[in-house]
User: Fold this.
Amino acid sequence: MVLLDRALTRCQDPGRGVVAESQPKVLISERDIQRRVDELATQISQDYADQGELVLIGVLKGAFIFLADLARRLTIPRTIEFIAVSSYQNSRVSGAVRLVMDLRASIAGKHALIVEDIVDTGHTIEYLTEMLKTRSPASVRSCALVRKAERAQVEVDLDYLGFDIPDVWVVGYGLDYAERDRTLPYIGVLEDVEADT
Ligand code: IMP
Ligand code: MG
Assistant:
């Protein structure tokens, strides 16, 4: 229904396509994503070998698919946790982040890896890293599938990165636009959406 709505909107818009053209344009193919997730999993498994259990912390909602694929490819002992944050939309403080759902388990004494879908301004990953460091983990590192390097407002030390992308709004593989397109197997661009958040 949602897709149909969008298709209809475009049909009524002069110069826009019909239903078949309403899919986001491929930016990173399913094959390229899978190959890169394989590489990241190999690297992470090597880096944490013989260090005990790794706690993977998926940032909801966007990271759920990336986390699922990455976690299943690791060869080291691992557990899964989730955390949710949201950006203050109308705040006078630019880039302020709010914790919406906390971890259920303690990470004290454990190695923690934040798994994010996308790093845009960098505020979310910076907030999470600083917050988790206060909980006495053995270490906190971060992993993101994509990054919009030219949008950075704070310097973020990502330990693992899938792809750098230009300043465009992307959907698919967990990422959404107004909750749409999260389950696309590839990362695509909605050509009429401006990346302005
Ligand atoms: P940051 O705090 O500005 O780095 O924003 C990170 C969050 O913004 C991500 O976790 C996403 O939820 C959201 N976001 C930023 N850019 C995009 C995009 O292109 N597509 C979908 N979500 C995005
Ligand atoms: Mg996210």
Notes: The longest strand covers residues 78-87. Confidence is low (pLDDT under 50) at residues 1-20.
